[in-house]
Write a structure and sequence with these properties.
Elements: H1 18-23, E1 27-36, E2 39-49, E3 54-58, H2 65-73, E4 80-85, E5 88-89, E6 101-103, H3 115-119, H4 130-143, H5 159-171, E7 177-181, H6 189-206, E8 209-214, H7 217-223, E9 226-231, E10 234-239, H8 241-246, H9 251-256, E11 261-269, E12 272-275, E13 278-281, E14 294-297, E15 302-304, H10 306-309, E16 315-324, E17 328-335, E18 343-348, E19 361-366, E20 372-374
Length: 378
């Protein structure tokens, strides 16, 4: 794990940006593949991580994301490919010789050690005086907001406090890389949201390059600089949260990141797409006539009533089902056109004094820049 240096710092080197970050990534995976028997769990993964980035690896259970993290840590050996960190090849190094700190889903705290002694566990191998070790532990307790809990045992701490101890322990040796394996999944929703924000603020403050594995879409989209979406051992798409949500590469990514309406395309002529029995106008350049697949848009992109009338060309539909979600209404719209496909709309509830009701006929539309074409992969 982190090298046995005796000089500590809370602040890492500045984030490299622009061309320099692209030319010299802090962590680089090339052609990484891992098999368990006949099953290929990680398949030809190529990934560059700039210094100081917080990268989330997102995907469903069994997609290979945790195995990929274990390969980076050295807990598993790759069948092929290479891993370079800070310009050095580390693929053959054991975990203890690699420069990282790790936080596990289960925290993995020592139950018979206090918070302070858990945090200081790695420091015990270093040639430090007791005063130096105590000062470093105090610094880390302050960093994670646990100054008053140094002498408490894990059983006396809440789940969120235990996770803070695990995070401080991972940072104790000032590693160059922080690995987070589903670090918040064991917490309840409110604590998870709060700790997620704290984790992001802490990562930005110390500038440490971080890779977090999660299956929670909201968590990845809210915390990451970039997100890697994995499926069946492969990387489906890499991009910023906005890029992935607004312009997914395929239906798998679109559906995994949130609900999406996907209407089968029947024909395309210039910017006019016939899909689900309706004509839609796309924004941007004309689309090649041979393109096919699905016309997609998010439920939140649908405009209804006066909003629809004042925007893009609309169509008429009937509200065939509805659900109250607190701050918004979820409506299923059955278009009036014969054989037209239904789609889902989500509208902010306070926007309407008298929202549409079940069976009401409404005008609906989608702005051209909210429409996108995808293939049927996934």
């Amino acid at each position: 794990m982190a090298g046995l240096a005796t000089a500590f710092s809370v602040v890492s080197e500045p984030v490299t940006s622009g061309a320099a970050a692209i030319a010299a990534p802090y962590l680089s995976l090339v052609g990484l593949t891992k098999r368990f028997g006949s099953a290929v769990v990680v398949r030809d993964v190529n990934l560059d991580v700039p210094r100081g980035e917080l990268l989330c690896i997102l995907g469903p259970s069994g997609c290979g994301k945790t195995t990929l993290l274990r390969l980076i840590a050295g807990f598993e050996a790759a069948d092929s490919g290479s891993i370079r960190q800070a310009g050095s090849e580390i693929s053959a190094l054991p975990p203890e010789a690699r420069d990282f700190g790790i936080v596990f889903q289960s925290y993995a705290l020592f139950p018979n050690r206090s918070a302070a002694r858990n945090i200081g566990f790695g420091l015990e191998t270093l040639p430090l005086s007791r005063t130096e070790r105590t000062a470093r532990i105090r610094e880390l307790l302050a960093l994670v907001g646990l100054e008053g809990h140094a002498d408490k045992y894990p059983s006396q701490l809440s789940g969120g406090q235990q996770q803070r101890v695990a995070l401080a322990r991972a940072l104790a040796l000032s590693p160059g890389l922080l690995l987070l394996d589903e670090p918040l999944s064991a917490l309840d929703a409110n604590v998870r949201a709060s700790l997620r924000d704290e984790l992001r603020q802490l990562q930005r403050r110390i500038g440490i390059t971080s890779i977090m594995v999660t299956h929670d879409q909201q968590e990845a989209l809210s915390i990451a600089d970039r997100v890697v979406v994995m499926n069946a051992g492969r990387i489906e798409q890499i991009g910023t949260p906005a890029e992935l949500y607004q312009r997914p590469a395929n239906l798998f990514v679109a559906r995994f990141l949130g609900e999406v309406n996907a209407l089968p395309v029947t024909s395309i002529s210039g910017n006019i797409v016939q899909a689900g029995g309706h004509a839609f106008r796309l924004g941007g350049s004309p689309v090649p006539g041979g393109s096919a697949g699905y016309l997609c848009f998010r439920p939140s992109a649908v405009r209804i009533g006066m909003e629809a009338a004042g925007g893009a060309a609309g169509t008429r539909g009937r509200v065939s089902s509805m659900a109250f979600l607190g701050d918004r209404l979820r409506l299923e719209i059955q278009p009036e056109i014969q054989n037209g496909g239904p789609f889902v709309a989500e509208i902010p509830f306070p926007r309407f004094g008298n929202p549409p009701g079940l069976g009401d006929h409404v005008t609906v539309s989608v702005e051209p820049d909210q429409l996108f074409l995808l293939d049927d992969h996934g």
